[in-house]
Fold this protein.
Amino acid sequence: MSPGTQCVLFLLCIMSFAIFTSQTEGYVKLENRLKSKVFLSPKITQLPGSVSNKTYYDIEFPKGHIAIKSFNAEVVDEAGNSVSLEETYIHHWVVVRYYEQIHGKDIIIAGNAGLCDHGRSQFFGMGSETRKTSTYVPDPYGIEVGNPVNVPVGYEEKWMFNIHAIDTRGTVDVTGCNECRCELYNVTVDKDGQPLKPDYAGGLHCCYDGTQCKVRSGFRSVKRDVYLKYTVKWVDWSDSIVPVKVFILDVTDTWQHTGIHDCLFEYDIEKSTSGVATRRSSVSFPAAGDVIYGFAQQYIGGIGAALYGEGGRIICSSKPIYGKGKDIGDEAGYIVGMSTCYPKPGSVKIAKGEFVTLESNYSNKQMHTGVLGLFYILVAESS
Ligand SMILES: *[C@@H]1O[C@H](CO)[C@@H](O)[C@H](O)[C@H]1NC(C)=O
Ligand SMILES: *[C@@H]1O[C@H](CO)[C@@H](O)[C@H](O)[C@H]1NC(C)=O
Ligand SMILES: *[C@@H]1O[C@H](CO)[C@@H](O)[C@H](O)[C@H]1NC(C)=O
């Protein structure tokens, strides 16, 4: 037998083994059944200093009754090359599940498991940290989607993107543009035409879709198209998968004071000599279960956040990774990743009704506007 024939036979052997194992459910790890696909968002057209904040309905998404194992994204250009955060700052992207009426226009947002009453209903979402933040859901867990039983009759499940990107090529103050300083955007009314509060220095109300951050005079204005490239990994649903629910806690949640989950979304950090600005919010957790995964979301200036259970035990603590150079994925001064938690399953539990406290720390050596303190956790509910 020639080495070539041996090789072919060997390959056939591996292939039939693979087919055999994929049919014997329960004996294989989920990893062996993992599927992966790369998609591109609709085109985002930008000019130096421009802001795009658009919602894209019915985006491409894996079909069927499946368990999502990871969702990662990054900005690429027309040629598919990664774009530096120094040129396109990805302020945030969120992926929201919704049900759309089959013969009509009605839309029902199929939010996550909480906790904000309005907004923050995404299943997946990040900002500049998207390249270096692990989103993998460990075995035997998965985020269940596409289960027809959960879709209202006459509707179908779809997914939408909200992508907020700031083009900072040639801008006079890159950080100021990224923190949405109103003076740099020359904005006095919000996106609905309402006058801004006189003391509102910066934040989302000053960098809505179509606004323009200040660019150096004489900077050549070159139009460019970028895309959010997203990679989804999943397995087909089976009974061996343990479902996890998505919970997002927001440090601006007023629940403690108002009894409702009114999330303000953003807050400011005043300049001070104290070094660290700490903000906390406590909520009563609505479910019981095991924490499987977690990470915090912060903007520039963030130095870490943690979730504490009653009595102060740490549920998960997450720190920003700042870039140190010029390379894509390591852009100096930007948060290029967040550390994540993968507690040993069963080792970190939350009780139903337990008071959970989110703590978000920012450096206050400089002022920061429009910052956020979010904590995303996946919980396997226990009955
Ligand atoms: C700022 O906005 C005002 C009113 O909208 C406009 O008259 C002015 O030219 C703008 N300034 C700059 C620098 O764009
Ligand atoms: C961006 O778009 C989303 C979705 O349309 C909207 O809810 C949000 O208020 C917008 N944010 C800004 C800053 O315009
Ligand atoms: C936040 O800062 C305070 C004060 O420096 C510190 O005690 C606390 O441990 C910090 N929390 C986190 C999550 O880093």
Observations:
- The chain has four helices and 24 strands.
- The chain has one domain: 35-381.
- Residues 35-381 form one domain.
